[in-house]
Amino acid sequence: MGKYSPLRSYLMSQAAERVPMSFQDIEKLLGERLPASKRYPAWWSNNPSNNPMTKEWLAAGFQTESVNIAGENLVFRRMQGHSNGPKGFAESPQAEIRGTPSRHPIFGCMKGTLTINPDVDLTEPADPDWGKVYED
Hints:
elongated; alpha+beta; 136 residues; 4 helices
């Protein structure tokens, strides 16, 4: 259980689509202060590789919105198609935490449908005369 796990548990217990919280509320929930990087909007982005706390709210099925750094508050919004976990074709934040990212079922379906002839040089300019413009 990580130090940000209480946030995931709290969000998963919420029935509302939007959960407004202050930074102080989150600190009380965690039992410790948030890092100094809380002052930067990037800390609150929904990029799962951003920081460990991001993975917790994504795993709970929420995203951040309306982040007010100066006012130290934000809103967690339930992701579409989530009710305490992913459904349908959505990528699973849980899978990313486990280290095995899931992919959309049609990922790679076009593999092998394009063939480039061996005699084609992809680095050759499409118009060989193009460079002559600058030679004049």
